[in-house]
């Protein structure tokens, strides 16, 4: 939804001076999103305002606040970041805004695959699906449901290491919009939120609140959209077929028929990797020894449609989204029919039996022992997948899929998850990054920031100066790295008193401080010698601060007054008349 050409843009609310607000990106029933620029840290941003016409409406304010709370709470490399927030209850335009990361990239609804990328597209899709599933698994682990997931809320950002998934527009959480004493307002908020959802799950279309399996449905829509982007006609391609089966299951009408979590989705994707040869078959350009998720470094697409929906006519954008949504649904239906006809699921071909069993825990057992334990109670083993696990020795079983405690029909098969032991990760180069970028880089490498210590110096505030362990050291998954970052302050150099004025001023300038000279006449110091410093040496002050040095100008001491003789001490200048007697 955008403001029509016959409706002039309302005036922009005032923001702090550090932000410049530019062109409208797009508008929804709740917010207006603009391009912006943060002059203080020199980076482009996205500025989101509560629509001025809803500033006084309590339902829209609570909906905005709930959405912002989710975005602030969730920090993940694949989730669009929030930098600054203002929420006040003045009931006036401009009392609610958010400044966040500007992802200048197309969504799945807008992305175009070029011919070079298309050669490897199924392998690229596998890697992108893992990125998206990992992001949603992290959100669910924090108790957060997206509620608005689909091709319209997933960006594909081109980076130096390939395509990167960025997830945007998390919806409000059901608990945040529960108002038992005011059901009319709760209904109004959910109705307003539902207007923004382009790919609602069947239960959301029926008016129910989103759940984790609603996000699985949105993931299926996104995966189906990625499959549809393939510019190459692929007949009997095992990887494409396997991905399509995962998408079809995720888009099942009944929530119970979908994957029960993104752990299950990731396990299914891992199972594909164990079957796939990992890098393009006979393609001479494929990277030997690389898994499909690693084959992601390609030239950027030739002319992908950038997300600037504010400039696209509303009717055209609506037709585009409806056509893509219809295509996504169509591919899911087609794939499910194909699955019934010939592909089948993991348990296809097993005749239903009335008896059922509970899957026991086989964690910590060898593969042979675990297989024997499962076989004894009528459960088969369909295959194995490997996964890093520092808590379980390499080669032993860590879990099953479905998990222990699940009730299954006798004769059903499970997959064993085998530990590869503690995965060793090299500490990345962090020196020179700002603290936020360093945290993101550590998270993307499955490491964590430990103790943060500030140090004065010439570097800008927040810049990483060193890490411990240092760059290149080996750590396990979840290892903590202590960081030394610049405080943005500098210490006033010592030993300035007694130096020549020019030398002291140069020392201050070299330390990133601004010398200010005050001259003072002194008789106890030679000319051009520093006799005082303010703030005193050793003080910690912000870079660029003024430090006053007092320089002496020698002046003779004032002359002492001559003492005046008393009358009794006055001598008579007249020579004595008494004759001097010479000794005989």
TrEMBL record:
Segments of skewed composition (Low complexity): 562-584
GO cellular component, one term: centrosome
GO MF terms, alphabetically ordered: ATP binding; protein serine/threonine kinase activity
Keyword tags: ATP-binding, Cytoplasm, Cytoskeleton, Kinase, Membrane, Nucleotide-binding, Serine/threonine-protein kinase, Transferase, Transmembrane, Transmembrane helix
SUPFAM superfamilies listed in its UniProt record: Protein kinase-like (PK-like) (SSF56112)
UniProt keyword Kinase present: yes
Domain PASTA: 353-420, 421-487, 491-553
Reactions the enzyme catalyzes: L-seryl-[protein] + ATP = O-phospho-L-seryl-[protein] + ADP + H(+); L-threonyl-[protein] + ATP = O-phospho-L-threonyl-[protein] + ADP + H(+)
Transmembrane segments: 326-346
InterPro entries found in the cross-reference section: Kinase-like_dom_sf (IPR011009), PASTA_dom (IPR005543), Prot_kinase_dom (IPR000719), Ser-Thr/Tyr_kinase_cat_dom (IPR001245)
Biased composition (Acidic residues): 275-285
Superkingdom of the organism of origin: Bacteria
Location relative to the cell: Cytoplasm, Cytoskeleton, Microtubule organizing center, Centrosome; Cytoplasm, Cytoskeleton, Spindle pole
Enzyme Commission number(s): 2.7.11.1
Compositionally biased region (Basic residues): 314-325
Domain Protein kinase residue range list: 19-323
Region (Disordered): 273-325, 552-584
Record-stated family: Belongs to the protein kinase superfamily. NEK Ser/Thr protein kinase family. NIMA subfamily.
Name of the featured protein: non-specific serine/threonine protein kinase
Organism the protein comes from: Herbiconiux ginsengi
Lineage: Bacteria, Bacillati, Actinomycetota, Actinomycetes, Micrococcales
């Amino acid at each position: 939804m955008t403001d029509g050409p016959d409706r002039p843009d309302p005036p922009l609310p005032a923001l702090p001076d550090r932000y410049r607000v530019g062109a409208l990106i797009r508008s929804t029933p709740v917010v207006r999103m603009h391009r912006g620029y943060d002059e203080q840290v020199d980076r482009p941003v996205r500025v989101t305002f509560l629509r001025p016409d809803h500033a006084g409406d309590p339902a829209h304010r609570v909906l905005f606040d709930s959405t912002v709370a989710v975005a602030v709470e969730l920090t993940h490399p694949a989730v669009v970041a929030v930098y600054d927030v203002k929420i006040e209850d003045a009931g006036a335009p401009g009392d609610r805004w958010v400044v966040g990361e500007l992802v200048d990239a197309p969504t799945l609804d807008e992305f175009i695959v070029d011919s070079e990328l298309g050669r490897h597209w199924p392998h690229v899709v596998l890697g992108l699906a893992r990125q998206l599933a990992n992001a949603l698994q992290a959100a669910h682990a924090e108790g957060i449901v997206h509620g608005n997931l689909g091709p319209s809320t997933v960006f594909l950002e081109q980076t130096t290491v390939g395509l990167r998934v960025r997830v945007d527009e998390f919806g409000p959480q059901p608990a945040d919009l529960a108002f038992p004493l005011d059901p009319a307002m709760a209904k109004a908020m959910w109705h307003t939120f539902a207007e923004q959802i382009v790919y609602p799950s069947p239960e959301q279309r029926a008016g129910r609140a989103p759940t984790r399996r609603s996000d699985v449905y949105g993931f299926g829509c996104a995966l189906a959209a990625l499959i549809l982007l393939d510019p190459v006609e692929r007949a009997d391609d095992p990887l494409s077929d396997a991905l399509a089966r995962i998408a079809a299951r995720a888009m099942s009408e009944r929530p119970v028929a979908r994957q029960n979590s993104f752990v299950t989705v990731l396990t299914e994707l891992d199972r594909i990797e164990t079957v796939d040869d990992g890098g393009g078959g006979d393609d001479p350009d494929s990277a030997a020894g690389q898994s499909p998720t690693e084959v992601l470094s390609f030239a950027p697409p030739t002319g992908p449609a950038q997300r600037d929906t504010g400039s696209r006519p509303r009717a055209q954008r609506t037709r585009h989204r409806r056509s893509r949504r219809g295509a996504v649904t169509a591919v899911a239906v087609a794939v499910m029919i194909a699955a019934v006809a010939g592909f089948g699921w993991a348990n296809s071909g097993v005749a239903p039996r009335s008896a059922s069993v509970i899957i026991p825990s086989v964690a910590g057992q060898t593969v042979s022992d675990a297989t024997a334990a499962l076989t004894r109670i009528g459960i088969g083993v369909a295959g194995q997948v490997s996964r890093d696990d520092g808590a379980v020795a390499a080669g032993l079983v860590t879990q099953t899929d479905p998990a222990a405690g699940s009730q299954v029909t006798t004769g059903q098969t499970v997959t064993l998850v085998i530990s590869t032991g503690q995965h060793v990760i090299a500490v990345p180069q962090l020196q020179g990054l700002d603290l936020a970028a360093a945290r993101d880089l550590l998270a993307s490498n499955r490491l964590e920031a430990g103790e943060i210590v500030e140090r004065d110096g010439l570097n800008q505030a927040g810049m990483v100066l060193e890490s411990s362990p240092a760059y290149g050291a080996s750590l396990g998954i979840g290892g903590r790295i202590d960081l030394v970052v610049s405080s943005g302050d500098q210490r006033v150099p010592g030993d300035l008193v007694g130096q020549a004025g020019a030398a002291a001023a140069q020392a201050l300038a070299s330390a990133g401080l601004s010398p200010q000279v005050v001259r003072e006449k002194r008789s106890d110091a030679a000319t051009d010698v520093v006799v005082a410093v303010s703030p005193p040496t050793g003080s910690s002050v912000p870079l660029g601060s003024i430090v006053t040095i007092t320089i002496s100008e020698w002046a003779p001491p004032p002359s002492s007054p001559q003492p005046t003789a008393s009358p009794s001490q006055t001598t008579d200048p007249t020579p004595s008349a008494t004759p001097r007697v010479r000794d005989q």
